[in-house]
């Protein structure tokens, strides 16, 4: 499913994000940038051990923000950068989780544009181990992308959401229909 908006597009696919050919792949990192399970584990395995070394030299990243590194072995697919975005752990919704989630997406988009990327792939940040309810996360993720494309004019940006499981894909599809 795809929607064209202002200076870009939002595409939803069911896929392993590490197989995509895009300029920037976003991973759902922890604030220590220590690597982990889930999508972050998959991205670190695909990029190789130099990714963790690059993360170590950066040291960490605040929740609601993102940092860029080289893509290392993912460069074989044409990927130029890995963006390590730190989403919030869900604590019931009263600890600014929605804002922090939106900022994790928005910072990634800003970095991608600064680095002249024309395509970026996101996973569904925070909705795995971090427990953010998917029905709340999907509209926030998509709205943040829409607002970015409409308010930050620039070169064409193709935004792909690589959603791992069918239920997540379906939730994003209905949120994109309502966007
Ligand atoms: P978080 O800790 O931010 O919740 P997780 O990695 O636990 O991050 O989960 C985020 C989402 O990423 C979940 O929907 C999970 O199913 C999905 N996911 C796991 N592996 C991959 C992958 N290889 N590609 C894309 N999405 C993935």
Gist of the model:
The protein is α/β, with parallel strands linked by helices and about 180 residues long.
Q: Which structural class fits the helix and strand makeup?
A: alpha/beta
Distance between the termini: 13 Å
CATH superfamily: Leucine Aminopeptidase, subunit E, domain 1
Count of all domains = 1
**What is the CATH topology classification name?**
Leucine Aminopeptidase, subunit E, domain 1
Query: Which bin fits the share of residues in helices?
Result: 25-40%
CATH architecture identity: 3-Layer(aba) Sandwich
Give the strand tally. 7
Q: Which ranges are low-confidence, i.e. pLDDT below 50, for 5 or more consecutive residues?
A: none
Order of helices and strands: EEEHHEEHEHEH
* Mean residue pLDDT: 97
The largest beta-sheet arranges its strands as 1-2-7-6-3-5-4
Number of helices: 5
Notes on the protein architecture:
By secondary structure, this protein is of the alpha/beta class. It has one domain (2-177): 3-Layer(aba) Sandwich (Leucine Aminopeptidase, subunit E, domain 1), CATH 3.40.220.10. It is globular. It is built from five helices and seven strands; from the N terminus they run βββααββαβαβα. Residues 16-18, 28, 38-40, 42, 87, 123-130, 162, 164-165, 168 line the site of adenosine-5'-diphosphate.
Overview features:
globular; Leucine Aminopeptidase, subunit E, domain 1; 179 residues; binds adenosine-5'-diphosphate
Topology at a glance:
Blueprint: E1 2-5, E2 8-14, E3 24-28, H1 38-47, H2 50-58, E4 66-70, E5 81-85, H3 97-114, E6 119-122, H4 134-151, E7 157-163, H5 166-177
Parallel strand pairs: 2-7, 3-5, 3-6, 6-7
Antiparallel strand pairs: 1-2, 4-5
Helix pairs in contact: 3-4, 4-5
Residues 16-18, 28, 38-40, 42, 87, 123-130, 162, 164-165, 168 line the site of adenosine-5'-diphosphate.
């Amino acid at each position: 499913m795809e929607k064209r908006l202002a200076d870009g597009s939002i595409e939803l696919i069911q896929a392993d994000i590490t197989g995509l050919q895009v300029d920037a792949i976003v991973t759902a990192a922890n604030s220590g940038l220590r690597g982990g399970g889930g999508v972050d584990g998959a991205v670190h395995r695909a990029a190789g051990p130099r990714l963790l070394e690059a993360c170590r030299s950066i040291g960490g990243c605040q929740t609601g923000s993102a940092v860029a590194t080289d893509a290392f072995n993912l460069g074989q697919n044409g990927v130029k950068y890995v963006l390590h975005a730190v989403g919030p752990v869900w604590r019931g919704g009263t600890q600014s989780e929605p804002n922090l989630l939106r900022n994790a997406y928005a910072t990634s988009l800003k970095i991608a544009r600064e680095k002249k990327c024309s395509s970026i792939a996101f996973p569904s940040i925070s909705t795995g181990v971090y427990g953010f309810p998917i029905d709340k996360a999907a509209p926030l993720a998509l709205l943040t992308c829409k607002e970015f494309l409409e308010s930050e004019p620039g070169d064409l940006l193709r935004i792909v959401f690589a959603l791992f499981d069918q239920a997540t894909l379906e939730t994003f599809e209905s949120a994109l229909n309502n966007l």
